[in-house]
Write a sequence for this structure.
């Protein structure tokens, strides 16, 4: 990418943030989440965690990537979150209609090669075949991570984007 | 960690989600963000992106990790977001008071070793020394990534948790 194009959303975001600042109330919140919890979920645009889970500012760390998968980067973040900032509970939320559901590394790599001329064969996109299975897989990855505190708890849910329901699966 | 303890927040989250579902309005939104934008930011509990940026459900992909750093996992997500789901703009937002600001790998690794008995020396926690510099560094990492579309745009901001202001720095 060149990075020389204008940024279409810059003025929109900065204007929204000015409005936000007008109503901002100073607080004594630190970097440690009040409820000692971390949510791991997908980047999907249809997920507003604060509204879905009834979160308030300061309640929880939120980790989001493609799929809500427990990657090395999520482990880096969870280790920091728990040992340095006091969290002790992890909830993994995957969702119906995910862009990774039914995807394959082969098709995604081919798409990148066709569009850019560059090889993405070193990337495992972590496709999802069954959303309940992927939640269980990723909760297990948190549970067996020896770098997290021994009293860390992990559980997992599936969010249905079609009806707004959240169902615990593990 | 053992994973056998109860999950303190499960009933709270599931009750909140039941309330959310009552007010849920079905929509025709797909996995492709309406505004073709991706926000990369920190897991910090004081950041509610929807309120800060005036986002609506469906507008933007949101990637969050410790620091809002552009890691391999963020690149995986950006490649998927752009080539498979049509985004063409990335905004990186770091913030004042970040848990990674002034941290060092040495101290963090020592803390993990003392607490768990296990070695985290393979983890680069990606400490931040200057929050404007880290935004510029990570926007540049997006801009030079050859796996992203050639018309992808990236820019970056600093959010101040003490006064709610958002300032573009690149």
């Amino acid at each position: 990418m060149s990075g020389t194009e204008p940024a279409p959303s810059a003025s929109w975001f900065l204007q929204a943030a000015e409005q936000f600042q007008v109503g901002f109330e100073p607080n004594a919140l630190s970097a440690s989440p009040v409820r000692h919890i971390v949510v791991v979920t997908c980047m999907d645009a249809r997920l507003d965690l604060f509204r879905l889970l009834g979160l308030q500012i300061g309640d929880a760390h939120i980790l989001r990537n493609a799929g809500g998968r427990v990657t090395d980067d999520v482990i880096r973040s969870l280790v920091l979150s728990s040992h340095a900032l006091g969290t002790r509970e992890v909830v993994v939320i995957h969702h119906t209609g995910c862009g990774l559901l039914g995807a394959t590394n082969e098709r995604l790599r081919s798409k990148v090669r066709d569009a850019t001329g560059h090889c993405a064969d070193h990337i495992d996109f972590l496709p999802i075949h069954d959303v309940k299975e992927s939640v269980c897989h990723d909760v297990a990855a948190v549970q067996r991570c020896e770098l997290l505190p021994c009293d860390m708890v992990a559980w997992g849910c599936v969010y249905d984007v079609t009806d707004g329901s959240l169902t615990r699966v593990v």
